[in-house]
Amino acid sequence: MITREWPPEIYGGAGVHIANLVSALNQSGEIESFVHCFGRARSDATNYQLTKEFSTINPALQTLLLDSDIAKNVQGMDIAHSHTWYANLAGYLAMKMFGIPHVITAHSLEPLRPWKAEQLGGGYQISSWAEKISYE
Q1: Are 26 and 32 in contact (CB under 8 A)?
Q2: Res 64: pLDDT
Q3: CA within 20 to 30 Å of 60's CA: 20, 39, 114, 132, which one?
């Protein structure tokens, strides 16, 4: 499972969905889920953070750097399952690099939210690109 949101850093419906999904999958006894998430260290997930030297670059570019780091660590998994544009590129890259299936759960569609362009500046074009390429 590849996600930006993972407890306790949940700020929306996607994070709640992912936490519940992983719990249900693991309880099934048939599937073992491994979580790769953005942010600080947690005992139940592999976390990814950028060093301070990258803290001043555009947040969307920060996301792309994290995605590339996550992608290389998905090697050996049976499937990459990503949630939201923040994580979709990591799943896409893992699919391309390791030949594993990539499943996307869409929680919002960036290219269909043009009002975000003003809010995010150049970040909107980056997030829309990452989402579009991941769906192809």
Answers
A1: yes
A2: 94
A3: 20
